[in-house]
Amino acid sequence: MRIPRHRAALLPALVGLLTLLGLVVAPAPGASAASAGWADVTFDGSANDWSGTLRQRATGFPAATITSDSAGGSAVGRQSGSSTYLSTSTPVGDVYGSSKGRPYLNLRPYTANGSGVPGTSTTTYAFDAPTPAGGWTFVLGDVDADAVTVSATGPGGVPVDPADLGFRSVFNYCGSGTCTANDDVPSWDEAEATLTGNASATDTNGASAWFEPQVPLETLTLVFTRRAGFPVYQTWFAAQAFDLTGTVDAPAEVREGLTVRLFAPDGRVVEETTTDAEGAYRFDRLATYDGYRVALVRPTGYTSDDPLSRTVDLSTSDRVADFSLRAIVPTAVSGTVLLSDGDPVPGVTVTLTGPGGERTVVTGADGAYVIDELAVGEGYTLTATPPPGTTTSGPRTFAVPPDSEEPVEGQDFTITPQPTGTLGGTVRVEDGGTASGVRVVVTGPDGVKRVAVTDGDGRWSVDDLPPGDYTATVEPPDGATVVGDATLRATVPADGGTVRGLDFVLDAPAPPATFSASGTVVDEAGMAFRGVDVTVVDPDGEPYATVTTGEDGTWQVDDLLAGEGWTATVEPPEGYEAQDGDSLAFDVTDADTTGLDFVLVRETSTGGGGGTEPVSGGSGGGSGGSSSPALAQTGGPDLALLLLGLGATAGAVVLLRRPSTRRE
Question: CATH class for domain 242-327?
Fold first, then answer.
């Protein structure tokens, strides 16, 4: 097989936002997708035992360790890309630019058959950190007499769905000076995650496909299968990149040489730079992550009214993140808010009270805060508002002596996670059975209600409760009552812990007996009316259910409780009326009620030809009928067919409400 080589295209980065504390930073003016270029690759070893390194040219993109059990030979390994490459006329080259002169890999099957699968080789790229969720590509080339199965894992080793591998298209890279143009392309089976060459497994050149993964990857694995001959396939990688720039508006004496650090979403330091004489800084050709953090290191004696750390989204465009500094006016008070292990706690509100009134400030990314322009005086108090579920040390007190220009430093706070507890118990039936699906409402000292539902064993619990006094109240389901106390009290200790034994007992009586009521709706000749509504009203005068007569004119309502004063009311179709009145009264005693029949006749003042007609023959449900009344035929065979279709699909529609548990 001739060894064609193809080049990959750099994925355009996703557009993102730079945010901090609700602030939105717009994309850089004129920002557009930019390719960082095609990746560098090293590859060493011998047949069936290769290793190497993949390095994308976008700053911050994690390197990958390559392992492969490909066969050896002169055509295997790193290729220069000078004669075989992906031109800008290919779909991937149109996005990422030409790969001419950039390296790629040629790989073969596993010839020693040590894998146990004849004619296959496995190549894995293990990234040092999760990749961006977009903004990069890998290309598989010269897939004709072979097939490549692609798999990947995300953070934590979770398998990646084949749809998230980001298959874009198949193409042939020949015809741009690399090889003789031809139309051969492979086919992609997403369900099997496999790229397969032409059906005849014929050796050709340039058959390729490109992918742009849509989720972060930790590993990418390519299993190469021989279908005919001794084939080779090619891999290229490329990435997109964007720039982060900004300016620090600061006094002239400190504007130059300020330190700016850039952190990846996983916290690793990507780069560090300093501002120029104009206060400008820049980070170029950054990988397309959403979630970078850019931070300005505050010099001694200066502070800012704006955040000194911001979150940046470089997934789709260049970004601008500006900062500002001003000189601290003596006197100032400063300190840090840290966890007990020494880690900083950003975003904590520190409140100062004393001479001059109340002031607040929020800690930065390093957990530090500064409040300046303090008036001379005594009785200053500092307090830190702990994040939910934590406690803080303090308060701190201090004074500002007259004529002092010395800052008050070291006013630090320690944040400690607050202990929490669990309340739990059971809900059981008096006869000894368990009660599942029962709500228990737990109310705490803060007035917040938390709801638990019993499981199949009648058990319930509520976790993560701060220390304090609580009540637990069971809500018995309909028809059940609580035996004993419906509300119990318990206390979560100051040091947390689990409190059990909040148990409830229910007395659930047997459900009352129910009965049915039924009848018919016919004309004077006994012909059935289908599709006529009959409404049953309970002894309280409330509509209980509405049913529709079936094909045979019958209707039925179930689940009626015993009692006197029920009524059934027919709703005659247009042009008809009930011969003996449209309502029948009945009592529900200890048996089903039948014979609630209605006879419909033509209204004397209404002309013929419209409304519902009785239906002869047919069979229907005694408790249901058509979802719409039968229509009178107005002439023509089409209408007759329509009536036959409606009759074939008729069924009862019943609207029920829950029966009252009250007996008469």
Answer: mainly beta
Q: Please, what is the end-to-end C-alpha distance for the chain in angstroms?
A: 93
In sequence order, the 6+-apart residues with CB closer than 8 A to the CB of 645 are none
Tell me how far apart the alpha carbons of residues 625 and 617 are, in angstroms, rounded to a whole number.
Answer: 14
- Are the beta carbons of 212 and 14 closer than 8 angstroms? no
* Preceding amide of 395 cis, omega within 30: yes
For 421-507, CATH gives: 2.60.40.10
Q: Which residues of the chain have pLDDT under 50?
A: 1-26, 28-32, 113-116, 606-611, 616-664
Q: Are 561 and 514 in contact (CB under 8 A)?
A: yes
Domain 514-656 has CATH 2.60.40.10: yes
- As a whole number of angstroms, the distance between CA 300 and CA 55 comes to 39
Query: Which pLDDT score is estimated for 403?
Result: 62
How much is the pLDDT for 634?
33
> Collapsing DSSP states into helix, strand and coil, what is residue 219?
strand
Sketch the domain layout of the chain as residue ranges: 18-240, 242-327, 333-417, 421-507, 514-656
In this prediction, residue 539 carries a pLDDT of: 95
Are 422 and 465 in contact by the 8 Å Cβ rule? The answer is: yes
DSSP secondary structure of 471-493:
EEEEEPPTT-EEES-SEEEEEE-
Instruction: Find, among 119, 105, 120, the residue nearest to 3 by Cα.
Output: 105
Rounded CA-CA distance 11/23 in Å is 28
Whether omega for the bond prior to residue 414 falls within 30 degrees of 0, making it cis, is no
Task: Please tell me if the domain spanning 242-327 has the same topology as the one spanning 514-656.
Answer: yes
Q: What is the pLDDT of residue 562?
A: 87
Q: What is the mean pLDDT of the chain?
A: 85
For the CA atoms of 80, 81, 84, 89, what is the dihedral angle to 10 degrees?
180
User: What is the reported pLDDT for 641?
Assistant: 32
Which residue, 38, 536, 1, 554, is CA-closest to 229?
A: 1
Question: What is the homologous superfamily of the domain 333-417 according to CATH?
Answer: Carboxypeptidase-like, regulatory domain (2.60.40.1120)
Reference 324, options 382, 255, 380; nearest CA is: 255
Whole-model pTM?
A: 0.51
Contact 91, 64 (CB under 8 A): no
How is residue 236 written in tokens? 């290229």
DSSP structural state of residue 418: P
Q: Write out the two tokens for 74.
A: 């002169």
Residue 533, helix vs strand vs coil: strand
pLDDT, residue 123, reads 97
Place of tokens 């769905």: 161
